TrEMBL record:
Site for Interaction with target DNA, residues: 81
InterPro entries referenced in this protein's UniProt entry, alphabetically: Endonuclease-V (IPR007581)
Protein name: Endonuclease V
Pfam families, sorted: Endonuclease_5
Function: DNA repair enzyme involved in the repair of deaminated bases. Selectively cleaves double-stranded DNA at the second phosphodiester bond 3' to a deoxyinosine leaving behind the intact lesion on the nicked DNA.
Similarity comment: family membership: Belongs to the endonuclease V family.
Residues that coordinate or bind Mg(2+): 44, 111
Keyword match Nucleus: no
Subcellular location: Cytoplasm
EC number annotated for this UniProt entry: 3.1.21.7
Keyword annotations from UniProtKB, A to Z: Cytoplasm, DNA damage, DNA repair, Endonuclease, Hydrolase, Magnesium, Metal-binding, Nuclease
Cofactor(s), by name: Mg(2+)
Source species, domain of life: Bacteria
Amino acid sequence: MYRPYHPPADPLVVRDLTQQQNDLRQRVQLMPLPAAPRLIAGCDSSFPTPDTILSVFVVLTFPELQLVEKIYHHDAVTLPYVPGFLAFREAPNLLRVYEKLQHKPDVIMVDGHGIAHPRRMGIATQLGVLLDVPTFGVAKQKLTGNYEEPALEKGSITPLTDKAGELIGEVLRSKDKIKPLFVSPGHRCDQATAMQLTLACLRGYKLPEPTRLADYWAEQFKKEIR
């Protein structure tokens, strides 16, 4: 993902964003889904330029994973990149895409972290709280936590824990001998459900289908805005 250079963030801005995350964190609920989903969404955001963002939602049937809808929104961003607060750059645009959806999903798989975040407020958690829908995160890189490398075989899993030993996610080898993924619950979802859905959405690629297709269509939609 594009990470433009920005000078150090204003301490007052950091303090305000931290307070907002702490407030949102009070609303987080971790629980199993009440029923198996019929529709699962994937979403992803990218920054075609330092000042613009393109966010994508795809909606798939579950468990068949047939694509039923794909949509995007391209807009300006006003908040500079601040480590640990990327959700504030992504969430507003993702909310606009979600509003456009004709098929509302039962659960959203987000390209990013859920509670596996220093303040437990990754993009999957923040988006879930703002929408009040079930979400979980599947990230390609660790943001925080400790783990042992899972075995090299597909389906190998190890716990991701914080400094106190609390489980904040799991590390999954989604394909033989490739770098693992980091799966964590966002909101109105729990770790077991997040992992179960991630495994159910693997189709031979590193990324599960909802986020893989969101990433694919992001590249296609970029051609429309050039």
